[in-house]
Amino acid sequence: MNTPSRAADAGLCGCPVCGLVCDGVADPGRCPRCHCELHSRKPESLSRTWALLTAALILYVPANILPVMYTQSIDSGSAGREDTIFSGVIGFWQSGSWDIAAIIFIASILIPSTKFIVLAVLLVNARRRRVRRPALQAQLYRALEAVGYWSMLDVLVVGLVTAVVKFRGVSEAEPRIGILFFGMVVVLTMLGTLAFDPRLLWDSPSRHPPHG
Amino acid sequence: MASEPVQAAEPVVKRPGWHVSVVWVVPIVCALIGLSLIVRHEISQGPTIKVLFGNSEGLEANKTQVKYLDVPIGNVTDITLSDDLTHVIVTIDLLRSASGFARSDTRFWVVKPRVGLGGISGIGTLLSGAYIGVDPGKGGHSQKLFTGLENPPAVTSESHGAAFTLHSADLGSLDIGSPVYYRRLRVGSVVRYALDDDGRGVTIGIFIDSPNDRFVTAASRFWNASGIDLSLGADGLKLSTQSLASVAAGGIAFFDPQWVRSEDRKPAPAGTRFELIKDETTAMQRPRGEPIYVVMQFAKSLRGLSINAPVELIGVEIGKVVSVAVDYDPMTHRFPIVVGALLYPETLGRIFNDTRIPPGDGAGADDEERRMSVLLGELVARGLRAQTRTGNLLTGQLYIAIDFVPNEPRIAFDGAVRPLRIPTAPGTLDHAQEQISSIVAKLDALPFDSIGRRLDRGLGGLDTALSQLNTDILPQAGRALDDAHKTLGTAADTLSGDSTLRRNIDRTLEELQRSARSLRAFTDFLARHPESLIRGRPADPKPEGAGAGHD
Q1: What's B346's DSSP letter?
Q2: Nearest CB to A58; choose among B31, B60, B131
Q3: Measured between CB atoms, which of B21, B23, B129 is closest to A78?
Q4: pLDDT digits (tens, 9 = 90+) for B56-75
Q5: In chain A, at which end, N or C, are there fewer CB atoms within 10 A of the end residue's CB?
């Protein structure tokens, strides 16, 4: 493989915070400038990411099954209605607001599930250390990072609506337990993305011993 | 510690090949959370039941709640049509805590705004939307399929009291929820009604709320208090109602009649059956016992005798007419009219109770009809007859009066004939009619023609006499009056102030006055000197002319 040489090959290690290039030291070393821990690769990156991804996947189930918001307005009666994410999308779609339905669908269903799949693919590839097109995969990873915070859109909407819509007897909105799970899913996927070390993608097995 | 030489064990150096990172705690915790959610959901999941309703007005899947005492106990999850398209099947997920509601005698109904004569209910649901109300069953087996009520039940299981059954000929204006009054206080309501199986009456279920249910006694009388009772009697116009609501919506009232002995006023057990009487007056009457059917045969037309007309014995109502039918007598080719009547022997009082069946009759001592026949036999022998009389001269309503009619021929009374047959006599009006017709016949015989002619002649003579009076006598009378006037004028002249006569009279009167004065002087003298009558006048100088004759 004609890949550019890595820092580890040159016995060097970059500080992740201040960027100081240090001598390739044993793993528990510290940056002489900012005292940040130095690792040539993030420790236990794959297993941590897997763990967080699994946790996120588990929580994704109640996040979708349980209602995220309770709304009550004068026309819907005192019973009010509790919407899950998906029933909210359907409700908006049926009431004609297909644009809002699309936004919620993309932000709350499409992006999280895509994140799971992409992260899983990256993890599998990193484990196999037989990366076909590392540049493409790195692009995927960057997209994953960029899109991460937008997944919180749903949580934001619920928070806003709950705060704003408070007209006793006429119209009310309250968060429900589902949104908590959804928020946790988003946080866990972001942590998972953070825990993943994309540099593992171009660690060739022939040239480098595996790192957790 | 032991003092043996320590044999240090060679530690097994293990390369940390596969070790579990702490981070796996996160998915484990998440899994536990998810698991607990599932378990909690499973635990809180109650039974799913289906309720049939006539329609699903106001109900919405996933929105309508099931409430008991305003506490949500379940949710409507689905609304579908039944297979035969006659009903709506409402699927309800009950909460786990409400699984006791899935009993066979639990009742479901839709609570929505209702406006009735008895009031308005369910106002709250105007804004909140309908919900399904529940009345939990007490017993019964567990059940998944129910039939919903069209109307909220008037009595729910949390209300305490007693239910009673009334029987009536018709429902009147009663309805579910119609009030039941005791001393004009609302104490209960009508909860159900149904036609009898044979269709000959209506059975009405009422519920009296506790604690007022103890006022229902075995002797209580129930009557229909619907509407306005307006009666015009000898004591004037009487208007009586229970309440304005009962005027419009109907109602039932009950009370213990005054004549019931206090020891009979024990609370009636729940479920006791009562008769619903048509009005208060009838309800408060004494019981009249089992009626006895009698017939009476009249020869005359009975126009004006209606069914339910009273049968009176010396002015006291003892029964009522139940049938008026025409019979045919082939012997005389007449159409006698047979009146059937029910007599209430209890109203006869002591005379009936004291009547004894002659021994050896064969009938039991409690055979009231037999006793009645014995009593009637005695009375008929003494002249008891049935008559028709006019009760109301304006409308010509007849009633049957059983009374002693003098000078009636003896009629044998057959006490063995059933139904009992009371002999009749022509009514008082019949007598009057005969008398009137004989008077009319006599009037008819009068020579009205000749009377008229003579009268005419006499009137002609009178006319001439009057005209003569006019022409001859009246002028003379005028003249005579003139003369009289003149005479009176002369008399007035004679009596005027300056006439001779007047002067003479004046002088005479003066003379008379003087004489009277001298007479008074004389009597004064005599009073002072009574002796002068014997001795003559004393020697002192005297007025002249006094007592001169006594010297």
Answers
A1: G
A2: B31
A3: B129
A4: 788 887 778 888 888 888 88
A5: N
